[in-house]
Design a protein that fits this description.
This protein has 416 residues and is of the alpha/beta class. The chain has two domains: 192 residues, Periplasmic binding protein-like II (D-Maltodextrin-Binding Protein, domain 2, 3-Layer(aba) Sandwich), CATH 3.40.190.10; 208 residues, Periplasmic binding protein-like II (D-Maltodextrin-Binding Protein, domain 2, 3-Layer(aba) Sandwich). Helices cover 52% and strands 14% of the residues. The strands form four sheets. Strands 2-1-3-13-6 form a five-stranded mixed sheet, sandwiched between helices. Strands 14-7-12-15 form a four-stranded mixed sheet, with helices on both faces. Strands 9-10-8-11 form a four-stranded mixed sheet, with helices on both faces. Helix 2 runs antiparallel to helix 16 and helix 10 packs across helix 18. It is globular. The relative contact order is 0.18. The protein binds beta-D-galactopyranose. The site of beta-D-galactopyranose has 13 residues, from loops.
Length: 416
């Protein structure tokens, strides 16, 4: 729709409101929630809005992690045709916010008391210069492992708590002819695994120094080399067809018992649930070995694009729906994430969700909560993409671990 069309639509909405006929316009929402589990979660939001007579114009852009969605977004904004609301992560929100492209949601936020219930770790990415520019939907975390319970049981494998136990478990599966690790060879998935591997190898201080502070010493350290060695171990234990596979198809391999483990954020749980699987019975969720006390998080938010200086009725309604406690519970139960508000009960959540909520609170309280490098919460897109390139090139055998460390130091320094 062109700018004139948008203005017309906006004034129609305002007129409709001013004469009391509550018939807000559609919301157009750009997002990358296209897998079965993601779509099921998105339906919770669509239905919530439908019940308020707000129509939904869907703008899905497939591609886990959202890189493709961000490319489409840039093209739309350049063409003067920004969508009403856009699923966005961390530094991307700050980037658009600092460019002045996002609407100011302070009125809705003040009316509904967001400041009191949204934790600081999320506010850091939802507010720019004291203005709320996006509505946080959830908190995901990337240092999880998903396992097929019968595959583990059949091979006498207990949940591995340390890297050495994980290596032993993988070797058992190998000996039994089962694919140990389900993985999709896409840069963002390699990086998601690297989040957890780096945390596991070097601990929280190392993770923070390397990915958040971008400290050259940490980036170029022997610990980083060991993290790359661990990535090589993982690479040696995926199946031959891993290259380019979508993350949800890798999850399906675990669901179907074709593989033992997948290292992936808790959106993977949405796929298990969508397939009718039950945590503790059919599948297991546990923290990546040696990261039981840490959480690497990413929070999906809906950033609202400025539609001409005012927050439109439908943007306000969408933001308000997203932050409502009942929606936060209903949506996150299906999505695999946990609420973005600290005051939502864990009652409706399954065992993995309850653990996720407990872990998040404990990690925040003990300073063990860190933004995910792989999902745009540790550093801006330019740096993130530079890290992706090195991690993927190493995963695909282009660099040995020592070369990867050197390349990482260079790439991060150039990208800043
Ligand atoms: C993440 C996003 C999740 C999930 C995942 C895979 O970046 O935060 O909600 O959708 O990508 O698509």
């Amino acid at each position: 729709m062109n700018t004139f069309g948008k203005r017309l639509k906006l004034s129609t909405a305002i007129f409709a409101l001013s004469v009391g006929a509550v018939q807000a316009a559609d919301v157009e929402v750009l997002h990358w929630w296209t897998s079965g589990g993601e779509a099921a979660a998105l339906n919770v939001l669509k239905q919530d809005l439908e019940s308020q007579d707000i129509g939904w114009q869907d703008m899905p852009v497939a591609g886990g992690g959202g890189e493709q969605a961000m490319t489409v977004l840039r093209a739309r904004v350049t063409a003067g045709d920004a969508p009403t609301a856009v699923q966005m992560l961390g530094f991307d929100i700050l980037d658009w916010g600092n460019q002045g492209a996002l609407a100011n949601l302070n009125d809705v936020a003040a009316q509904e008391g967001w400041d009191a219930v949204v934790p600081d770790a999320l506010k850091a990415f939802a507010k720019v210069d004291g203005k709320w520019v996006s509505a946080p939907v959830n908190v995901h975390s990337t240092n999880w492992v998903w396992a097929n319970k019968s595959v583990l049981d059949a091979n006498g494998i207990a949940v591995p708590k340390t890297w050495d136990e994980f290596v032993a478990a993988v070797e058992k599966l190998n000996a039994a002819g089962v694919t140990p690790i389900a993985h999709g060879g896409q840069a963002w998935q390699d990086a998601t695994v690297f989040d957890a591997v780096a945390m596991s190898t070097g601990g929280p201080e190392f993770y923070k120094a390397a990915f958040i502070d971008l400290d050259e010493e940490a980036l170029g350290s022997d610990t980083m080399k060991e993290a790359f060695d661990r990535m090589s171990f993982i690479r040696a234990n995926v199946d031959d067809n891993f290259s380019g596979r979508d993350w949800n198809l890798a999850t399906a391999m675990v669901i179907n018992g074709e593989a033992g483990f997948q290292m992936m954020g808790d959106w993977a749980k949405g796929e298990f649930l969508n397939a009718g699987k039950v945590p503790g019975e059919d599948f297991l969720c546990f923290r990546f070995p040696d990261t039981a006390n840490q959480v690497t998080f990413n929070a999906d938010q809906f950033a609202m694009f400025d539609q001409g200086g005012v927050v439109s009725a439908e943007q306000a309604a969408l933001a308000s729906a997203i932050l409502s406690p009942s929606f936060q519970s209903a949506f996150n139960v299906v999505k695999g994430s946990v609420p973005a508000r600290t005051d939502v009960s864990d009652e409706a959540f399954d065992a993995c969700g309850k653990a996720g909520m407990k872990d998040l609170a404990a990690a925040a309280a003990s300073n063990n909560l860190f933004g995910s490098m792989a999902h745009g919460h540790a550093n801006p897109a330019s740096v993130k993409n530079a890290i992706y390139d090195v991690v993927t090139a190493h995963f695909n055998g282009e660099y040995d671990s020592a070369t990867a460390v050197e390349e990482l130091v260079d790439a991060v320094s150039i990208a800043q």
